[in-house]
Fold this sequence. Notes:
Elements: E1 9-10, E2 20-21, E3 30-33, E4 36-39, H1 58-93, H2 98-101
This protein binds zinc ion (ZN).
Amino acid sequence: MKAKRKLKIQNKWSGNPQGILENTDCCIKEVWTDMRSHQCSRKRGHGKDKLYCKQHDPEKIKKKEDAKDRKIELKIEKETQKDKRIQILLKMAKGLSIKELKYCHICFKKD
Ligand SMILES: [Zn+2]
């Protein structure tokens, strides 16, 4: 049989250093409002042991962050590719005069 989880102490602050036991109907996540922490007031039922609300579900948050990281990685990759093209163009252009470069349709748009 699974051991019962010890209830978490919430709402700990200087005016109440002992805090209060968690509300077992609400999401277990500690949130901050006006410099004070308190238990999230949303209904629990998501994530590990269904202790979290939809918004604070750690697995969902991780997935969201991973997707964000991937988006940033793709952007960096794209920028690097662009940079590589510029590097190649610069290598190709080395030794050419400005007059000759003016005929390069990649470097200069024809008016
Ligand atoms: Zn919550």
